[in-house]
Amino acid sequence: MSELLSFKGVNAGYGAAHVLHDMNLSVRQGEKVALIGRNGVGKTTVVNTLLGLASLRSGDIRLGQRQPRRLRPYMAANNGIMVVPQGRRIVPNLTVEENLMLGAAVGRAGPWRLDSLYRLFPILRERAHTPGTAMSGGQQQMLAIGRAMMANPELIVLDEPTEGLAPVIVDQLAEILNQLAEQGTSLLLIEQNLSLVGRVAERYYALSKGSVVAEGKVRQDHIMELQQHVVV
User: Start and end of every ABC transporter domain (predicted)?
Assistant: First the structure.
């Protein structure tokens, strides 16, 4: 399987703050990978480094077959990687459908269009002409995922997707992510909720103080062993 995303020996941060230390991570075609860790260990900095919002000081980041010399926010999307950001970032004053069309603006060909997306997310069809920010937190998360899917990516990176969601919505989210994976989309799930990790991911990396301290297969009978990496 080809690698869709890889970090090799990555050191990154903001100004004088050195956050990621010699970090290695990879996601291959068809994989469902989790990056777990407590608050403040650098998980979101992984996303910001990928998007060029944090400073890459050394190491290599590959987006598919490309290794850009300097990362910019648009490069991930252009190379088939879409990010569902923490907090969802639904654009105010745009309807649900208008928010979805922002993802389509990337211009990648593929199976996801409004009609196919609405079959997966009937609530988005029902609320198509409602302001995106007027929906519930769970519905906004579905909208953020739908917006990413409209770019027809090979890989979706989700940063803390269960934040603020009720358990019943987390259950729905797990079903949706597994459906996406079954249809060929790879996933990088950046998450503390081990219930979701256990139901979706096949491999994990555990991050502590900006370094990967453990990695391996996600096994249902050992999922509670991962608690040490996410509980203070």
Answer: 5-232
